[in-house]
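re: that chain from earlier
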Amino acid sequence: MILLLGSNKGRRVQKLREGLAALSRAVDVARVSRTYASEPWGRANQPWFLNLAVRGTSRFSPDALLFFAKEAEAAAGRKGGGRWGPRELDIDILLMGERVVREPHLVIPHPGLAVRRFCLAPVAEIAPGVAVPPGDKTVRDLLEACRDPLEVLAI
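^ sequence. v structure.
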């Protein structure tokens, strides 16, 4: 499984660390990317995000993992922020192996993964050869083909 953590409100580095610590209670973390700074996607005029990708395994079902992620976000102070707005912590489930989930409340692979550079860059660091279902394109392939013009920098 691959998750993406992001923060652009408050003490961003601290919030990422808190999120990673919380996730370690539900996920056996194998790899963590460097931190990336990225222009906000979807809504301008807000602080840049810090993001990092996490690769690991979990016994949690997709729904249970989503519930756990939402609890971790709330514990970090997230109270909303609106769609694509500023937030203390955001945890997205990007991939869960070859599993495909299409529910009103959860879509895996994450629907934005293939077109958002801020997702692809940190994931490519820790899992470049992972295939993104339902096709056979790897994370590396998707990053090379990505046309997202927003800036993403490893820091």
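The longest strand covers residues 49-57.
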